[in-house]
Amino acid sequence: MGFRHTPFFELLDAVQAGGCPLCRIVNRAVRRYLEATLYEFVNDAGMRHRVVQSQGFCAAHAALLRQMGDGLGVVLLHEQVLAGLSRGDLAAVLKAPAAPCPACATAAEWLDHSGGTLLASLDEPEITDYLNGRPAFCLSHLRWLARHARSRQQRKQFAEIARTTAEHLYTDALTFTNAANRSDPNRPDLTPEEKTVWLRILDFLSGSPA
Ligand SMILES: [Zn+2]
Ligand SMILES: [Zn+2]
To answer: Mean per-residue pLDDT for 28-44?
Structure first.
């Protein structure tokens, strides 16, 4: 039995909150990271250097920065990269960034952390129950878990969860398209859950929104 510590209880909270628990933990950590960056680190030399290396943020994390609405923070964070690009020669302008988006790097660290906690807690009763029910992992995180699984049996369990989730979504997708067929007088009425299939498809294949 794994050691029940703070990361384990954070994982349990995420499991109980619904949606992909790993998306939830990673998204929350990234949001905190970007908030801290804007409010405390816009003038930090290390942070500015990181943004120069990555030439800004990826589109998904830039969307989060937009939501946060801190214009001055965004400007200060990006001044140096613009200075470099505007002063460099033409070949330098076309060169790909030397490092990934800093928020993506943070997301990867938190996935290692929370995914590792989950894999270490597979024999905890709450986690066992969750995995045996209808777990809401996104496909990308199921693949991560399968890749880092500690046994062939664990790997198979995550692959099976992925297939079963796809199967349920496919069934609901067929019902949804049938219900949308206005020329069919016997088209089924959708349950509230069936009506959300399009959102659940996006959550499964693309992950929960940040
Ligand atoms: Zn996920
Ligand atoms: Zn990113």
So the answer is: 92
Would residue 190 count as lying in a domain?
yes
| Residue 1 pLDDT > 90 | no
Q: Domain tally for the chain?
A: 1
Residue 124 lies in a domain: yes
| Domain range for 42 | 6-206
CA atoms within 13 A on the CB side of 83: 10
User: b or e along 99-115 (b: 16 or more beta carbons within 10 Å of the residue's beta carbon)?
Assistant: eebbbbebbeebbeebb
CA of residue 79 to ligand 1 center, whole Å: 33
Residue 164's pLDDT band, with cuts at 50, 70 and 90, is very high
Among the bound ligands, name the one nearest to the CA of residue 107. Answer: 2
* pTM (predicted TM-score): 0.90
| 202 C-alpha to ligand 1 centroid (Å) | 11
**Structural domain contains residue 1:** no
Residue type, 54: S
Domain membership flag for residue 101:
yes
CA distance 16 to 58: 30
Q: By percentage, how much of the chain surpasses pLDDT 70?
A: 99
Ligand 2 mean position to 101 CA, how many Å?
5
